[in-house]
Design a protein that fits this description.
Strands 1-8-5-4-2-3 form a six-stranded parallel β-sheet, with helices on both faces. Strands 6-7 form a two-stranded antiparallel sheet. The protein is of the alpha/beta class and 394 residues long.
């Protein structure tokens, strides 16, 4: 097992009615001016936004709201949020929504705490983030795990670049997690969220680390099997509290770094998928299931025993050679994604077959003009990224 440091300070308030504790908990963190960020109309129509505002206002907090976060959250919205939060003198950012809303809230917190710096400079590396302000979330979609993660992803709509930032300052102070708030999400968002949770763990399971990580493996494998089992229940009945609870909690665990302890995460599929989202505005989870089959077919020979172990422990595939088991495991994972109705190639993703120039553009963006290699399981340069995109290009 490799050496590691692990700190996940996010306080979790989990269960029915968790959001009703928002005023009590935020007061414990010294908040007075709460800036609420949310997405579309769902939290308005459901009455959740009004409920939270009522709880906070009756407790004596000053409250300002800003809605309009989109999937693949936009830099333009973040900049607007920073201006509004500064004018309001916000001292706490509260996200009500899923990963895109929480990532936007994180970015707004960073920008508000550093008013002399354009927030995009943190994402593109021109500035180092050294301070922020506290963020809380009321989670309405189990998917990104942003409620406990040290990462946030923003899309610069002016350049089409979607980029992630990893920093301890991205860890939210508190997450309110009521599985009942996920009961009414559209089916597409549910299955995309399930896929995102699985991919966060798969991208940590397949890495260059060859040291023994027995416990970390068991945690990751149990999470994968549990989410896949619970998804069968949830897809049929989104109001099954137990199934939705399991998926919600696994989403948080999958992206808080716990399933990577003792080894490094890879996240090649995320980086390749980000370029699909940045250019074509496709759903994040869908971009991941599109890329994973091509990536797995490209790299599986680098660690046949690892892929064979995956096939045995996740799908119960025990017959045949390691090579045969590895291939069968990849096929089973692809079939599972398809059983959810998730895309596994460009045509299924809805973008159609791309020409050579488009593929080259995606690879160039992913590798920063062939100046950065992607991942560690099988580090990719631009030419290799092109090959993986081509494997998905049908």
């Amino acid at each position: 097992m490799q050496s590691f440091n692990f700190k996940c300070p996010t306080e979790i308030v989990f269960g029915r009615g968790a959001e009703e504790q928002v005023a009590t908990k935020l007061r414990e963190y010294g908040a007075s001016h709460i800036f609420i960020v949310y997405g579309g109309g769902s939290v308005v129509k459901s009455g959740l936004l009004a409920k939270v505002e009522r709880i906070l206002l009756s407790a004596g907090f000053a409250v300002q709201t800003l809605g309009g976060v989109q999937p693949n959250p936009r830099l333009g919205f973040v900049r607007q949020g920073v201006r509004t939060a500064l004018a309001f003198q916000a001292d706490f950012i509260l996200a009500i929504g899923g990963g895109s809303v929480i990532d936007s809230a994180k970015a707004i917190a960073h920008g508000t705490a550093n008013p002399g710096i354009d927030v995009w400079d943190f994402w593109c590396g021109r500035e180092k983030l050294t301070r922020s302000m506290p963020v809380a979330s009321i989670l309405t979609l189990a998917a990104a795990g942003s409620e406990t993660s040290d990462s946030a992803v923003i899309t610069n709509e002016e350049t089409g670049k979607k980029a992630g930032l990893n920093t301890p300052f991205n860890r939210p102070a508190i997450a309110f997690m009521n599985p009942e708030l996920t009961f009414t999400v559209p089916k597409k968002q549910l299955v995309c969220g399930i896929s995102d949770i699985l991919m966060h763990t798969l991208e940590r399971y397949f890495t260059s680390c060859k040291e023994t990580n027995a416990f970390t493996d068991l945690v990751a494998e149990s999470l994968l099997k549990n989410v896949m089992a619970q998804s069968k229940v949830a897809v049929e009945n989104q109001q099954d509290y137990d199934a939705m609870s399991e998926i919600m909690w696994c989403g948080s665990v999958s992206h808080c770094n716990f399933t990577e302890l003792g080894r490094a995460k890879d996240f090649t599929c995320h980086k390749l998928g980000h370029e699909l989202s940045g250019r074509f505005d496709v759903t994040h989870g869908a971009s991941l299931t599109t890329i994973w089959p091509a990536w797995a077919q490209y790299v599986w020979r680098d660690d046949v025993p690892r892929f064979a172990q995956f096939a045995e422990r996740i799908f119960g595939i025990t017959s045949g050679s390691d090579e045969e088991k590895a291939q069968a495991g990849i096929k089973a994972m692809v079939e599972y994604f398809r059983s959810l109705g998730m895309p596994t190639n460009f045509t299924e993703l809805g973008i159609g077959v791309q020409d050579k120039n488009s593929i080259a553009y995606l690879a160039d963006m992913a590798t920063a003009g062939d100046t950065k290699k992607l991942g560690n399981f099988h580090p990719l340069d631009k030419a290799m990224a092109i090959e993986i995109y081509q494997l998905a290009n049908h």
